[in-house]
Structures are given as C-alpha cells and as structure tokens.
Amino acid sequence: MEQVKENFLIKAESETNPEFGCYPDSRPIEEHLRKGIINLDKPSGPTSHEVDSWVRRILNCEKTGHGGTLDPRVTGVLPIGIDHATRVTQLLLVAGKEYVCLMRLHQEVDEEKVRNILQEFQGKIFQTPPLKSAVKRELRVRNIYNVNILEIDGKDVLFRIECEAGTYIRKYCHDIGEALGIGAHMAELRRTKAGPFKEDETLTTLHDLTDAYHEWKEEGDESLLRKCVLPMERAVEHLLKITIRDSAVDALCHGADLASGGILRLDKNIKKGETVAILTLKGELVASGEALENADEIHKSSKGIMVTTKKVFMEPGTYPKMWK
Amino acid sequence: MKLKTRKCKSCGEYTLQDVCPHCGGDVGVIYPAKYSPEDKYGKYRRMLKKQMLKKQDAGVDA
Ligand SMILES: [Zn+2]
C-alpha cells in the first residue's frame, strides 16, 4: 500500500459519508450486475456483437457493450460492460492490447531473417486498414511496443505482441511476409490483454457466466456471479486517477467540470491533455475527463477548473446536491 | 477447427509443442469451448461441475 500512496499527491484530506454511494465491492448483487464488467474469454465463431447479445440473454439484462472488437475467429480477452457500465468499455477502446499470434510464412526462410524483420517491425509502423474495414482507409501510424518470438517451427512463427489500440495483426503478418519477400498470413490469433484486463483468474467463459447466473437465480448463491462480474471500476485501472470530495460529486454527475477545490488526491503522473478517471473516496467511478494542467500545477492550485468532464458514469442524485 | 497453438496448463506459456518447453507441463487448447445460446446441456454441465467440486473438497479433507 505504501507504493500506492507514493504515486499520489495529496491536496486535502476529507472523509466520505457512508450514507451515500457504495464501495464498489459492496454493492448489492442487482446493482453489482447493473454496474458490472466481465473479463470474457471470447470463443471462436461468433462476432463480438453476437457475444454481447448472448451475454444479455444469459444475464437477462437490457444493455451490453464490448471494448475493442475481436473478429469471429479470434478468441480471448473481450471486456463486456453491463447495463449502466456499457459505456465504460469506451474507455478501453484506446487502451493498449496484447495478442499471441501464429503467423504462417509461405516459404521456409532462415530463422535469423525472421527474427531481424520482427525486430524492425517494432516502434512506429504504418498500416492501411483492410478493405472490409468500417474505418476510413487512410495510412495510419501504430505503435508496436514489444514483439517477443516464442517459437519458430518451420514456416510457423509464434509470437506475442504488445501494441497500440487499432493495430491490425492480420495486416501486420501480411506486411512482414511482404518485407521477407515470401508472403505470410495470420493463421491463429488470441488476445491476451485489453487495457487492464488479462488472462488471470477473472477471465470468464460464457459457460461460467451461465452457470454462475443459474446458481444465483435457482440456488440463491451469488458468490460465483461476483467472481464472473467485476465492478466497472476495474475498467479504469489503466487510467490516471483523481479522487474528489463527496461535495463535488453531484455537480460532476450533472456534467460540470472539476474545480481545484473538489480535488483531494491525484496521480503524480497526470499530464495536461491526458484522460483521467475521477473517483469518489469510496473508489466509485464518477466520470472520465481531460486534465487541463500537469499534476504539479493541479496540486499547487487554489482555484479554477482543473479537469473538463468528458463522460459521466455515476447517476445524478447518488450523492447530495451541494451546488446551486 | 484445429489450432496448432497450445497453452501450458501449469505455467500458462504458449507453445507449438506437445509438452511445455518451459516447465514440462501438460499443454491444452487455447480457446474456450463452443457456446450455444440454447445451452441444452447446461444442466448436466452444472451437475458435473458440482461433482468435481465435491471430489476436490473430499480430496482436501482426506
Ligand atoms: Zn509450462
């Protein structure tokens, strides 16, 4: 816990009123579901939208939405937000991703050449979106943070890649094939990370989810469901954070920007222009916003707007109205 | 669909081999089982899961 403290600048101390809001891990199960996010292990076959609709059917809920679409044949980490948390997945769209990819070369080639080319295809690369893509087909730059070759077996190259959101792995393999002059294609792909979600004990299959919901509805045991569905706050773990006073919460819920006086502590690494998550003292997600100053300036400030509110996630009226 | 990529059941590493090259552990498929929204066999799956849990619990007690 010491380390957590060190990453924060304390601007003011305050307490939170237990009568309002709720600690994310203590929400009653119905509310927990409404504000829940699933670290889903997508099976091969369905589109990401089909998976959304299956989850709606399993949980008998109104809305679902995923963060970062996976093609039908791709499996792995597909975060899915439920009802009130549906929009939270938008905060994952720009988050970094990690995949394990099996690339098949179209001819045998010296291993050293493959290793060298993959070394070169790191850092900033250029990609044109595929023909079928919904986005405008313009050359775009994507950052490849790291590529790690796990195994090479003849024409098969298994590698792990950490990359910026919106990187086309299929295109990446194709371009490597071109660069090698022999051609290559993506044979198998699995996503192992999407922002803060990864292959850990929270990763849940559709079967797990079905059984957990059944246990709750038929047997009255909600413990499995709490393992499958996480508080939506998990979806902002990768963002820089600002904690605010109870008295500042409701204005933000109505779309107001965050002023200096409402801030209690903030991440040391906040930089002007960056996306921040705004939390209550109980750790509940209020909104996301854009920092207007660096952490030091915010820390020193005594008045003025420090963060413009972008997306509000907390319902107005959760905390008392303290503004006019 | 038969995928060539495997995953070690012990250490979680991905591999193309039949035995984990990192720890010698068993390897398995990397993707979750097919799901059908009708889920006709859900009842049996849950029964099996419970039996497995009971066996595990018994194992711990013994
Ligand atoms: Zn292993």
Polypeptide structure, described:
The complex is a heterodimer of chains A (324) and B (62). With 324 residues, chain A is an alpha+beta fold. Chain A has nine helices and 17 strands. In chain A, strands 2, 3, 4, 5, 6, 7, 8, 9, 10 and 11 form a ten-stranded mixed beta sheet that branches. In chain A, a hairpin with an 8-residue loop joins strand 3 and strand 4 (75-82). In chain A, helix 3 (48-59) runs parallel beside helix 6. Chain A starts with a helix and ends in a 12-residue tail after the last strand. Chain B has a domain at 1-31. Chain B has one helix spanning 42-61; strands spanning 6-8, 14-15, 27-28. In chain B, strand 1 (6-8) and strand 2 (14-15) form a beta hairpin. The radius of gyration of chain B is 16 Å and the shape is flat. Chain B starts with 5 loop residues before the first strand and ends with a helix. Chain A binds chain B through residues 41-46, 54, 57, 73, 75-76, 100, 102, 150-151, 153, 156, 158, 160, 187-188, 190, 199, 205-207, 210-211, 214-215, and chain B through 1, 3-5, 12-17, 21, 30-35, 37, 39, 42, 45-46, 49. The complex binds zinc ion. Residues 8, 10-11, 13, 20, 22-23, 25 of chain B line the site of zinc ion.
What order do the helices and strands come in, and which of them pair?
The complex is a heterodimer of chains A (324) and B (62).
Chain A: H1 2-6, E1 8-10, H2 29-34, E2 36-42, H3 48-59, E3 64-66, E4 75-82, E5 97-105, H4 111-120, E6 123-127, E7 140-153, E8 156-163, H5 169-180, E9 184-194, E10 197-198, H6 206-219, H7 223-228, E11 229-231, E12 240-244, H8 246-253, E13 258-259, E14 263-267, E15 275-279, E16 285-291, H9 295-300, E17 305-312
Parallel strand pairs in A: 4-9, 12-15
Antiparallel strand pairs in A: 1-14, 2-4, 2-11, 3-4, 5-8, 5-9, 6-7, 7-8, 9-10, 12-14, 13-17, 15-16, 16-17
Helix pairs in contact in A: 3-6
Chain B: E1 6-8, E2 14-15, E3 27-28, H1 42-61
Antiparallel strand pairs in B: 1-2, 1-3
